[in-house]
Write a structure and sequence with these properties.
alpha/beta; Urease, subunit C, domain 1; 15 helices; binds zinc ion
Length: 466
């Protein structure tokens, strides 16, 4: 028996947002909740415990399920504070991002990702879906270990204490029918078969339990309809189906992507993915911003999920996706994508607040549903059966302090609304991942997060030619 399955711990929550065991979706606020942990899962939940018993770790505030950051490109964190004040579009921002992507090596990539994931842990993200496409050396030559860069991300997540699904992205073209450019050569395996060989090896290794903490798994991604042609898409999807993996793709982030797809194939990106059998309940469409009514119907009929990345979409001027209509799909979830902002509360409330701007009315998404999207639905999109404080579930819990100016005076009869609309990442006091305390009293237990971000971001930019 592994060390993981023998370990026990107990946490006493002043308040906890408990999943309703009858439907698994809705939740209720309870006070004085003793959570017993066995291994990395919740073994017992006892309500009405007035004070922490001896040996239990005290979590003052409201404990909610850990948040899932279902869409991340860790290295984009280096762009914050340096590019966001500028003019331009998604495409000019992408040029700046490519300048950075051209220079990173395994060491700088791992260091940046470690700091970025540690910032996520501090903010209350307990699981991350890393949409990984920076695979090879500049020029496209594989590293001696073809999965070197992906492995560095797994190490980074382990050091930061967050759960990771490594969504290895197939990326073969610079645009529909176009070769990859000089920077994009790093992203490409040259063919879907070579992508398959590389990712298959890593996935087999992870399934075999090489990650001792049980906090890492493989998923896959189709970068976009711009970067992967239909036959290659189908290869990726078949592989995901065989191994029952999460499958993600950037979908309709920009009108120009839709136009190029319509020109080349006569259908929208969602239509093209559907035509080639990509959609389904393991599939997540990232962004899903510029959709037709037919696109929404197809996403709903196939029970596909949609990952909304509001702070990035607003930063890049992408547009506002139709999240009210997308409730009919397999579920919404959130991602911080480019990390312009790393704050699950901001990301979650933006789903509703952007909808208010679009619809001209309030209360389209109710707070409990928003919390569910940011936790349970995000976990499901990443292939984890977590995201709820419930017996048998993964012991990933975030405690939001109630003593900050932001939440002072909050009515706990409306706890979900108070947290979603009032809290910020700065209110996260404690974070438990797999039963282990990763953040305690607002500090990461092993990493000085601000210092590591400062050091690694500055180091990365010294390498960029400007
Ligand atoms: Zn992305």
């Amino acid at each position: 028996m592994s060390e993981r399955s023998e370990r026990t711990a107990a946490y006493w929550c002043q308040y906890a947002w408990l999943a309703d065991p009858t439907d698994g979706r809705s939740a209720v606020l309870a006070d004085g909740v003793l959570v017993g942990i066995s291994g990395d899962r919740i073994a017992t939940i006892e309500r009405g415990v007035a004070a922490p018993p001896a040996g239990a770790v005290r979590l003052d505030g409201v404990s909610v399920p850990g948040f899932a950051n279902a869409h991340s490109h860790a290295f984009h964190r280096a762009l914050r504070g340096r590019t966001h004040g500028r003019r331009g579009t998604f495409w000019t921002w992408r040029d700046q991002m490519y300048g950075l992507a051209a220079t990173l090596d395994p060491d700088t990539y791992e260091a940046l990702a470690t700091a970025a994931y540690a910032e996520m842990a501090l903010a209350g993200y307990t699981a991350v879906g890393e949409f990984h496409y920076l695979h090879h050396q500049p020029g496209g030559r594989p590293y001696d270990d073809a999965n070197e860069m992906g492995r560095r991300l797994l190490t980074a997540a382990a050091r930061a204490g967050v759960r990771i699904t490594l969504l290895d992205a197939c990326y073969l073209a610079g645009g529909i029918g176009e070769p990859v450019d000089a920077v994009q050569q790093r992203f490409s395996d040259g063919s879907a078969e070579r992508w398959l060989g590389r990712v298959g090896a890593l996935s087999t290794e992870l399934d075999g339990g090489s990650d001792d903490a049980g906090r890492a798994q493989c998923g896959v991604a189709i970068h976009s309809v711009r970067a992967v042609e239909p036959a290659a898409m189908a290869t990726v999807a078949r592989f995901a189906a065989e191994r029952n993996m999460a499958l993600h793709a950037h979908v309709s982030e920009q009108p120009a992507e839709n136009e190029a797809c319509l020109d080349a194939y006569g259908v929208t990106p969602v239509g093209l993915l559907h035509r080639h059998g990509i959609l389904g309940d393991r599939f997540t469409a990232v962004h899903a911003t510029h959709l037709t009514t037919d696109d929404i119907d197809v996403l709903a009929a196939t029970r596909s999920r949609c990952c909304i990345c509001p702070t990035t979409e607003r930063d890049l001027g992408d547009g506002i996706g139709p999240t009210a209509e997308l409730r009919r799909t397999g579920g919404l979830c959130i991602g911080s994508d480019s990390h312009a902002v790393v704050d699950p509360f901001e990301e979650t409330r933006a789903v509703e607040l952007d909808e208010r701007l679009r619809a001209g009315r309030r209360g389209v998404h109710d707070p409990g549903a928003l919390l569910d999207a940011a936790t349970r639905s995000g976990y499901a999109a990443l292939g984890w059966d977590g995201g709820a404080v419930a017996v048998g579930g993964l012991a990933d819990v975030v405690t939001v302090g109630l003593d900050s100016p932001r939440l002072a005076g909050a009515d706990l009869d409306e706890a979900a609304g108070a947290i979603v609309f009032g809290a910020s990442a700065a209110d996260v006091r404690h974070v438990v991942v797999g039963g282990e305390l990763v953040v305690s009293d607002g500090a990461h237990r092993t990493i000085d997060v601000a210092a590591e971000l400062d050091r690694t971001v500055r180091r990365a930019w010294t390498l960029v030619q400007r």
